[in-house]
Design brief:
two-stranded antiparallel ribbon; globular
């Protein structure tokens, strides 16, 4: 049995499809601030998206959460696609609150490419960006947890380089107390430890 339909749907050609795939590949060129454990290099946004999807999947299974796994994984995969155009915005950057504007435009550009077969790309992106579903809540918790974990396991390398404070980190993670108290409790203990180690500025 052939995997490919005899006639490609819509006006897309293989050339257009592969051009879209190369457009997605550009996410690998977007560097983040966190360092990959056991290396001296920073992770890129494509690596983070993979890590986010796997972590969400695993945590949802571990705690037997009542979430739509397909929706959750799709949101994790599109989560940072807008950064292809907008670049990564550091969590504690002063323009963090406006980063979504350029990211949203980038998603619209990708959705409009002729080789894109994902008709609801913008809808999925909006669901993770502005939604309030259980899937969105879990995604946001894990998205904050992962860079925190990388910082913790690189002895606060990014925190130290950029002069991040204890209060900045605590404030950025406070919402997790309502969404996932167990993880928030763990984070609070680790923030105290990181401060004791002088990886975070104590203020």
């Amino acid at each position: 049995m052939s995997l490919v339909a005899p006639i490609l749907a819509s006006t897309s050609t293989v050339d257009e499809i592969t051009e879209f795939l190369l457009s997605l590949d550009a996410l690998k060129r977007v560097d983040r601030r966190s360092y990959v454990t056991g290396t001296t290099r920073k992770e890129n946004s494509a690596e983070h998206s993979w890590h986010l999807a796997m972590a969400c999947w695993s945590i949802a299974e571990t705690f037997e959460l009542d979430v739509d796994h397909e929706q959750l994984l799709k949101m994790a995969l599109v989560h940072d696609l807008g950064e292809i155009d907008a670049g990564d915005t550091f969590l504690y950057s002063s323009n963090r609150n406006t980063a979504h504007i350029e990211e949203r435009a980038g998603i619209a550009r990708l959705e409009g490419e002729r080789g894109n077969g994902i008709t609801n790309l913008s809808q999925i992106w909006e669901a993770q960006e502005t939604g309030i579903s259980k899937e969105t809540q879990l995604l946001k918790v894990v998205d904050r947890l992962l860079p925190f974990l990388l910082n913790l396991n690189t002895e606060g390398k990014t925190w130290i380089e950029l002069g991040v404070t204890r209060s900045q980190v605590a404030t950025a993670h406070v919402f997790i107390k309502d969404s996932f108290p167990m993880i928030h409790h763990w984070l609070s203990k680790q923030i105290a430890y990181a401060t004791e180690q002088s990886w975070l500025i104590d203020r």
